[in-house]
Amino acid sequence: MQRGFTSGLNSSRLEAGETQLKVEKIQLNFGGVTALFDVSLEVRQSEILAIIGPNGAGKTSLLNCISGLYHPQKGRIVYANGREHEITRMKPHQIARLGIARSFQNIELFRHMTVLDNLLSGAHVHMRSNLLSSLVYWGPAQREHIRFRRFVEDIIDLLEIEAIRSNTVGSLSYGLQKRVEMGRALAMQPSILLLDEPMAGMNSEEKEDMARFILDINEEHGVTIVLIEHDMGVVMDISDRIAVLNFGQKIGEGTPDEVRSNPHVVQAYLGEEKKSFPFKFSLKDENGNGNGNGSGAQVDHD
């Protein structure tokens, strides 16, 4: 069910399950250091794909390649939305305009601006008015601003941040700032949303709220989610598939149950002696209800 959005939150033209993004044998080097080696990955429309791995595994480097901040020396990245686009060498703003938005591990908001203005800055990538018409604020420029303003107000309702819409971002708690950053990415009307540690530094209640918003965005609006997250309870509970990196290489991929029992994954996290993960991953109790702690195993941050 759509929440009455005035414009589609999801800009994808694909059917659920169709291949939306292909990462093909990419290699990323920084001088003599290889951050990613022969990494291949496929992202499907309307799924939640988690990317996990120990500290320094190359997870954020992979998102940076997809979003255009880094350009791999080998391999290619192909994005499909009606037709295929090779985005390997594209600039970040070009990739964003195609429909790939992201949040960052470290919050990258305009701290002196209000929540509303930060969200509107995300919609700017789709605005066509030039500087002069925007200054005059009449005719097409005015209509365009009103249309995006309505869209941003819908995002505010979706993320339940009505009470802070006029607050400056710098005055907000860390958890609310992370929510605003995700809202700014949504203002770009993405077909793929890249989230880099969206729950880092949050308490249990904030994590449960963020997990609920991610599920709403995915299930109600069909937006594909690719996230990096260290809280294994969250990852195993909300992900459709999981890809595992270690020392820049992909060592496992599959459903949460398949990844949990993969010996290469267990070894990467726990060493040679452990044969399986010694904990249960779930945000729910035996009755299927939230247990109130919203966390599971915790792994060191990148």
Percentage of β-strand residues: 15-25%
Question: What is the annotated CATH architecture of the domain at 19-110 and 189-270?
Answer: 3-Layer(aba) Sandwich
**CATH hierarchy class name of the domain at 19-110 and 189-270:** Alpha Beta
Structural class: alpha/beta
Tally the helices: what do you get? 10
H/E series: EEEHEEHEHHHHEHEHEEHH
Based on DSSP secondary structure assignment, what is the total number of beta strands? Answer: 10
The strands making up the biggest β-sheet line up spatially as 6-7-8-3-9-10
- Outline the low-pLDDT stretches: 276-302
Mass-distribution shape: globular
What is the residue-mean pLDDT, rounded to a whole number? 84
- Share in helix: 25-40%
For this structure, the CATH topology of the domain at 19-110 and 189-270 is Rossmann fold
Fold topology:
Elements: E1 19-30, E2 33-44, E3 48-52, H1 59-67, E4 74-80, E5 84-86, H2 92-98, E6 100-102, H3 115-123, H4 131-136, H5 140-158, H6 174-186, E7 192-196, H7 204-221, E8 224-228, H8 232-238, E9 241-246, E10 249-254, H9 256-260, H10 263-270
Parallel strand pairs: 3-8, 3-9, 6-7, 7-8
Antiparallel strand pairs: 1-2, 1-4, 4-5, 9-10
Helix pairs in contact: 3-5, 3-6
Question: Which terms would index this structure?
Answer:
Rossmann fold; 302 residues; 33% helix; alpha/beta; disordered C terminus; 6-stranded mixed sheet; 4-stranded antiparallel sheet; 10 helices; single chain
